[in-house]
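Note to self: the last two entries modelled the partners one at a time, which told us nothing about the interface. This time every component goes in together.
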Amino acid sequence: MTLETNWNQIYEDAKGWIREAGEEIIASFTTSFAIDTKSNPNDLVTDIDKETEKFFIERIKKIYPSHRIMGEEGFGDQVEDLSGVIWFLDPIDGTMNFVHQQTNFAISIGIYEDGVGKAAFIYDVTKDELYHCSKGTGLYLNNEKLKPLEPVKLSESLLAINATWVTENHRIDPRTFSPLLKKIRGTRSYGSAAIEMAYVAAGRLDGYVSLRLAPWDFAAGKLLIEEAGGVCTTVDNKPINLLDKNTIFVGNETFHSQVQKDYIQPALDQNYYLKTPSTK
Ligand code: IPD
Ligand code: CA
Ligand code: CA
Ligand code: CA
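The predicted structure of the combined assembly is written out below.
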């Protein structure tokens, strides 16, 4: 085994770097930082997103020069295939929360080898909650091992969803999910895909749907949820593509299968529009 694939060492390094980066982010609250916009006025990015991404890239490249990094802010590699070791990195997931609330944001890192998930970390910085797993060893919240997910009744379940799903949009017909919202116990919207996926893995939520997420948003959460016994697909029940943007539907196994059978499949049968993964 070379250093480049010493998974225990990679795991420990990633955990250490995440906590270090978290401290830097907290320290930034006392200074002022620049806020910019990207694709539209609500698509925010700050100096701290960029500095945090650079912090990880410097460390990864120094210790593991053969590993590639797909990071949201673009300082990593142009990743077009899944060969070798790839770190999917979202330095701050929930930037809008970071800017407006200084809470409810996370560092998200999923590490894959040849397309297979090896280790995942989602760190809710201000709550000091690090959700982590390496494949096959169970899911942890800080030092505590969490129980695998248990079956849940639809009528007693919580779904994370945001308002765009029930308003006009060009990806998912709103009629698909509105009947489900009447059936379940409640909905939540935290504004961080990583936190929402970590909560599904931990059983705090039973499901989460999103219109369009990028690999750095879901790579870590997918592995955490699968490790906990949950299921991750696109909304139209296809495998998630790690190299592209996807619609995302994740959940507890019973929740996922019931929603697929009773709400999504009937919507497909009625020809409601449900777009397949797309970069558009
Ligand atoms: C966003 C958050 C948000 C989700 C968006 C993502 P960012 O990530 O996860 O909850 O709805 O689709 O882009 O830009 O804050 O890293
Ligand atoms: Ca962003
Ligand atoms: Ca994100
Ligand atoms: Ca981000």
